[in-house]
Amino acid sequence: MIMRVFQVVIRPGKEAEFSKFFHETAIPLMKGTAGIVSVLPGAPRAETPREFSFVMVWNDLASLKAFAGEDYTSPHIDPAEAELVESRTIRHYDLVET
């Protein structure tokens, strides 16, 4: 399985708007995506007030590519959130099962 860690930093003043998108659109979208085993959404904390994240566990690379495309290592965002996001990062790891 593949663990995908996606993080965004929101433009100053856009936190509330992005939070609405995150909770009403992004989380339900990811939870309903085929090939995802687990979705762990992360909201900002006091020390990182403009940062949101997702940790997703995917069944396999084929499932991830079906969602993100062949360029799955690039941090794509929904066009609806593009004007809200200052920066974004994506990382992939092999999930270690314990």
Can you walk through the features of this model?
With 98 residues, the protein is an alpha+beta fold. The protein has a single domain (2-94), classed as Alpha-Beta Plaits (2-Layer Sandwich). It has two helices and four strands. It has helices at residues 15-31, 61-68, and strands at 2-10, 36-42, 51-58, 85-94. Strands 2-3-1-4 form a four-stranded antiparallel beta sheet. The longest helix is centred in the first third of the chain and has 17 residues, at 15-31. The radius of gyration is 13 Å and the shape is globular. The model has no long low-confidence stretch (mean pLDDT 93). It comes from Leisingera methylohalidivorans DSM 14336. This is ABM domain-containing protein. InterPro entries: Dimeric_a/b-barrel.
